[in-house]
Each structure stands twice: as structure tokens, then as C-alpha cells.
Amino acid sequence: MQSLQRNVTIKDVAAELGLSITTISRALNGYSDVGEQTRKKVEEAAARLGYHPNRNAQRLVTQRAHALAWIQSDNDRKFVDPHFVEVMAGVLRGARTGNYDVILTSDTPEHQHAVYDRYVRDNSVDGFIVDLPQVDDPRIGHLLNHQRPFVVHGRESRNSEYGWVDIDNAGIFNSLVKLMIANGHKRIAFINGDEQFSFASARRVGVEAALDELRLPLDSVLIYNTLHPMGDAGYQLTEAALAKADVTALIYSSALMAVEGHSALVRYGRQPGDTIAVASMDDELHYLDLKPFRGTFTFVRSSLREAGHALATELIRACEQGGDPRGIIIPHTFELADDIDGDLLAEHQNQDA
Question: Based on the domain organization, do 106 and 22 belong to the same domain?
Fold first, then answer.
């Protein structure tokens, strides 16, 4: 009967290279007191021999769990939201690249604080991902008070005190309003997300700032809100906007809502690019095919998957290197509909700069 193959240990790697177990351990765990040449030699020998570090032993040496916590509100609609799925795909990819695990758990909103507190007290994770921040978010206050590494997808008023990943929500929707007005639209409907969350409230700020800068009345833009997650109210809110006969442009906070809203446009006989202009944020949801709407919708594209990857990468950096918190803006690009004058967008962006 063939015997089972023995697992290669750190002692085997040390014997192979004639180095101490301590040197091998510190080389594999990234300590700066090990030279680059030695580190490379150790890594090559470990790969050749088939050595895989024992995660529990690593934790004792490095005092790190190599785990990131992502605590969700217990909301069934959230877990089927394609926006969340895109961010999660990026987070998992970034964590895998950094050799970290992601602990994804959930609890009811009133019990989430206890979950954060448990992870803080037992040191079972190295850092936290916080998403969908609200005004003066208590999760952020708790982590700041306990001085634990965390990165927020979005930002609120204390954003200089913590790391975050975001897009220029206010700037993007400021530009979209100015673009529509510059193209002759005097009555616009803005179909926004849930303004209890900072991304949606920032978008409203951008819309209202554009009207203030252009010295136009606030009711030049009619604002409609949905509950989070966005998407399933796209048809209903578009129908409500179209009840106002003088609305000639629609701006959506999500391409998912824009696609659903297109059915209402068809029902009301409003042709995008002809009798009504349509613009939308496009988070590059992989399952959503927007090719049929190119040329008739204006899109502002920014990848949620890229944002998720940046969240994990920046949190791992903060866990391992520390230092001052950093904010990361994920870039965006405009793809204009055929009926929209792009020179007017460039003109407004140059003025804002």
C-alpha cells in the first residue's frame, strides 16, 4: 500500500538552503530585514519543494489574520443587486491578489454594531470594508474610535480621517445637468437613488449646484428618488416624470433604471435622441447589455468592479503598511448620444477647471 506523501515543512526549506528557520520565516512573511536576493532564493526553493505556509503559524509570526471583514445589512434585495455583485467581484479579486480572505457576513441594522465590536475585540480580522456610508455613519465612528484599519466605498463628512474609494458623484451630475441645459433642455427629470446614502445625496448636491451656478430655479430639475437598491423603480419613476409634459430630458443615477425606464418611454411615444434626451451613470454591470442604447443614451462610465478591487488593495496596504489614510477617485468617461453637442461638455469642464 502506497504511503501518503509527507507535507513539506519550513524545516525542509531551511535544510535545503542551509539557512535558519527564522530567516526562512521572515523572508516568506515579507520582513524588510531580509535582503531581496535571499528573499527570492527562499521563495524559489519553497515553490520548488511545494511548501505552503501554515496560515495559523503565519498569524503567530506576523500578528495578522490575513482576513478582511465586510459586514452587510441583512437585506435579501441587497444580495441580488447587480451593483453589489460588481463591487464584490472586484473585492474578491483584489483580496486574492494580496493573499487575503474576505469574511462576508450580515446582521440586522440594529445588531451590526455588535458584529463590528466582536471582530474588533477578538482581532480575527485585519481590517474592514464599509460600504454605502450614511451621514455621520456610526460604523465609521466605531472604527475610528478603535483605530482599526478600514476603507469606505464612498465618503461622508469625516473622509479626511479614513481611507476611501469613490467617484466624483457631485461633479459628474453637475456636468450632466449643465450639458442638458446647454443643449437646450429647460425641464429635466433626475431619477436618483436613495438619498439616505452619501452617493445619492452627493449627486443631488451636484445637480443643485449646477442650477445655482447657471442661476436657474431649482424646479428646472425635478428630482425623483428610489429606495436602495436601485433598479426596480426605473419604470415607475420614469412614468411619473413623463406625466410632466414639459420634461425633455431624463438623467438616471443607474443604467439599470435607465433600461427599465426605456419601456415607459416607448409606451409614451417618447423617442430617445428625438423627442427626449436620456443620460445615465453606467457602472459597467457585466450582465447588462447597453449596446442597443448607444447613440441614443449619453453614458458616464465608471467601473464598480475596479472600485471593488481598489477597496481591497487599499485596505491591504493600510493593514500592512499603515500611514496616513488615502482617498482614491475612480476615473470616469463620457460617451455622448448622437443628439448631444460634445463641445458644450468640454466648454463647461474647462470653465469648472
Answer: no
Task: Please enumerate in sequence order all residues whose Cβ is within 8 A of that of 330, keeping only pairs 6 or more positions apart, or say none.
Answer: 165, 166, 167, 302, 303, 306, 307, 310
- Summarize pLDDT for 66-105 with one digit per residue, the tens: 899 999 988 767 788 899 999 999 999 999 998 899 999 9
Q: Phi and psi for 177 in degrees, rounded to 5?
A: -65, -45
H runs (alpha helix) in the chain: 10-17, 21-28, 36-49, 55-62, 76-79, 82-97, 112-122, 138-145, 169-182, 198-213, 234-242, 255-267, 304-321, 342-352
In angstroms, the CA 28 to CA 48 distance is: 14
Residue 217 grid cell: 430655479
C-alpha 74, offset from chain centre: 19
Task: Provide CB contacts within 8 A for 314, sequence distance 6+.
Answer: 151, 163, 165, 326, 328
Q: Which of 180, 169, 176 shows the shortest CA–CA distance to 205?
A: 169
Q: Calculate ∠ Cα 217-218-223, nearest 5°.
A: 145
Q: What is the bridge-based pairing of β-strands 67-73 and 221-225?
A: unpaired
15, 126, 140, 322 from 147: Cα distances, Å: 41, 12, 10, 11
Q: Let me know whether 29 and 117 are in one domain.
A: no
Q: Are 198 and 134 in contact (CB under 8 A)?
A: yes
Domain that holds residue 231: 169-301+332-352
Q: Quick one: pLDDT at residue 9?
A: 83
Position 41, amino acid: K
> For residue 34, is pLDDT > 70?
yes
The rounded distance, in Å, linking the Cα atoms of 348 and 176 is 10
Q: Is residue 2 part of a domain?
A: no
Q: How many domains does the chain have?
A: 3
Phi, psi values for residue 15, rounded to 5°: -65, -40
